[in-house]
Amino acid sequence: MGKIVLGLAAPHNPNITSRPESMTDDERHQLISGFGRLNKSLSEASPDCLLVLTTDHLTNFFYHNNPMFCLAVSDTCSGPAPKEMAYLRVPRATLKVDTALARGLLHYGIENEIDFSYSEEMVLDHAFMVPLNFITPQMDLPIVPFHIGTLLAPGPTARRCYKLGQHIRQFISNQYEGKVAVLVSGSIYSDVGGPTMGWVDTAFEKDFLELVKAGNVDEFARRVTPENLNKAGVSNELLAWVTLLGVLGPVKASYTEYIWSEGWSSGAASLVAWNP
Amino acid sequence: MSLYQVQKLLFNVHNNLDLRKSYLANPEEIAKAYDFSEEERRALRSRDIGSLYRMGVNPWLLFQFAHIVGMDNAEYLKQIRGE
């Protein structure tokens, strides 16, 4: 049956593409080579599709209609969002969606008391397009966009995200045919619009990265408490990381890199690869 | 409190580029379509980002709005920190 062949983590800080000059030459070099490493891992793993776990940035969802989790189930998805085209400097692209995975997971959920929201018209904003632009620059790998509602409070708990990740793993292992890579897009600490914007808690981030290196995923999930989420800034992207770790299980990271540029408003780049 | 109405205006200005243009040209006119309290109307009119933050507007959205109306990061931070 299906196999999870690769895990990846990458940032989506829009400054990476919109203002590359915000980085020093060294930072830019380090970041580009990190993304290059993830791109190479993806080519080597040669998956049939890439499941992308991240939060919509008030593009598709808002308080008028705000799902905790949403699967894109259309044949294709396009991005960036119209509101981003003037500055993001990522070419507009239409990506194929692996509907066997997207719809299969939706139905697996229905059978297992998980009511995923689903969309025939999810626009891919920078949270998807910035990392995809580097990791799969040809934009030719089928994806499954999976929104986790972390930006608008209240959002899901870490426990819920972790279990959901384990369910995704169950589905892929037992009911899907093919090789799957899974990407989490987001920063461990991100306070865009919050009182610490312009700064990141590097020690806090590196503690979580150490757990990732050790493959200590249970401990990672346990530490994503409401208190730590509060400490990690307004975006709560750690919840998407926990979901990914639920999918991967106790696997040590095969590659980690950490870059923080003071020219960015918030959101350091943690790049990780796992080869389960 | 009509916090949702405030956030809805900010969301619309953030996503709808035509509305964004109209809002920047004539914010009072656009604001008429929303049901604000007097305090919310005042805070929006005077671009009192600090008050909007303390009312509970989502910080990520508020920052996008501040950027749209031309406020720089330093002034934004000063206002939300109440400095």
Summarize this structure briefly.
The complex is a heterodimer of chains A (276) and B (83). Chain A is of the alpha/beta class and 276 residues long.
Please explain how this structure is put together.
The complex is a heterodimer of chains A (276) and B (83). Chain A has a single domain, classed as LigB-like (Protocatechuate 4,5-dioxygenase, Chain B). Chain A starts with a strand and ends with a strand. Chain A is of the alpha/beta class. An eight-stranded mixed β-sheet of chain A has the order 6-3-7-2-8-1-10-9, sandwiched between helices. Chain B has 83 residues and is an all-alpha fold. Chain B has one domain: Protocatechuate 4,5-dioxygenase, Chain A (Orthogonal Bundle). The longest helix of chain B is centred in the first third of the chain and has 13 residues. At the A-B interface, loops of A face helix 1, helix 6 and helix 7 of B.
Structure characteristics:
heterodimer; A: about 280 residues; alpha/beta; Protocatechuate 4,5-dioxygenase, Chain B; 8-stranded mixed β-sheet; two-stranded antiparallel sheet; 9 helices; globular; B: about 80 residues; mainly alpha; Protocatechuate 4,5-dioxygenase, Chain A; 7 helices
Number of strands of chain A: 10
Spell out the CATH superfamily of chain A.
LigB-like
| CATH architecture level-2 label of chain B | Orthogonal Bundle
Oligomer: heterodimer
Largest sheet of chain B: none
Q: In sequence order, what are the helices and strands of chain B, one letter per element?
A: HHHHHHH
**The first-level CATH class name of chain A:** Alpha Beta
Given the C-alpha coordinates, what overall shape of chain B results?
globular
User: Whole-number radius of gyration of chain B?
Assistant: 12 Å
Instruction: State the helical fraction of chain B.
Output: over 70%
Q: What portion of residues of chain A belong to β-strands?
A: 15-25%
Largest interface: A-B, 22 and 19 residues
CATH topology of chain A, anyone? Protocatechuate 4,5-dioxygenase, Chain B
The overall average pLDDT of chain B, rounded, is 96
CATH homologous superfamily (4th level) name of chain B: Dioxygenase LigAB, LigA subunit
